[in-house]
Amino acid sequence: MVELKTDTSIDEMYAAGQVVGRALTAVREAADVGVSLLELDEVAHQVLRDAGASSPFLGYRPSFAPTPFPAVICASVNNAIVHGIPNGYRLRDGDLVSMDFGAELGGWVGDSAISFIVGEPRAADVRLVETAERALAAGIAAAVVGNRIGDIAHAIGTVCRAAGYGIPDGFGGHGIGRRMHEDPGVPNEGRPGRGLPLRHGMVLAIEPMLIGGGTDGYHAAPDGWTLRTDDGSRAAHAEHTVAITAGGPRILTAR
């Protein structure tokens, strides 16, 4: 069931989203050659503490997961698409890093992700990250009252496919509110004019995921969480929490 949020609730979700934005900004600024993923997890954790917020990621265990998630960020490096578990890995020059983070504040959740390159970037990685951001922007632009979920999916997929990138099937965006994952699902590829109509008060986490090699295949790593590209190519992930309003899409996790 899709819960429509009131304007007051959306304002409260914005407060949670701003904690998310501050944490991702802090993580991006702290990320450098030699810094470990565990150190970046602690940076994000400190932002939560300072805000009096909690993590919807820490301890989360969906049906597919063998163990509860042990951190407050998902840190996915190079050929990891999403759900990477922070560990002692120290960032290297040229690493492509995707960071996904959520915060719960006042009973409401915000969720967002960024991808960036540490040190000297490769041109192919810059293009991949920029395309993920363009796909996200296209999805957000389609998130207007009167459109349908398929319009968001089509906008995202069109950008990704035109650039020659793969899209991992079965993973995409979702509704968000009191819980991190709510109805409806928001695919990253689809047909326009199809699916649930978008209404004022719907709040969605829109999150394109791109596979640089152009194929769609992926697999779960031995940890049961991290999803990696089958072809070994690099991946990028971008996400914002977005409210559908009569005045247009409102980005609640703007940085």
Describe this structure in words.
Substrate binds at residues 83, 181. By secondary structure, the chain is an alpha+beta fold. It has helices at residues 7-30, 37-51, 123-141, 149-162, and strands at residues 73-77, 80-82, 96-105, 108-117, 173-175, 182-186, 203-206, 209-211, 218-220, 227-229, 235-237, 240-243, 250-251.
SSE map:
Layout: H1 7-30, H2 37-51, E1 73-77, E2 80-82, E3 96-105, E4 108-117, H3 123-141, H4 149-162, E5 173-175, E6 182-186, E7 203-206, E8 209-211, E9 218-220, E10 227-229, E11 235-237, E12 240-243, E13 250-251
Antiparallel strand pairs: 1-3, 2-10, 3-4, 5-6, 5-7, 7-12, 8-11, 9-10, 12-13
Helix pairs in contact: 1-2, 3-4
Catalytic activity: Release of N-terminal amino acids, preferentially methionine, from peptides and arylamides
Subunit structure: Monomer.
Binding site for a divalent metal cation 2: 111, 174, 207, 239
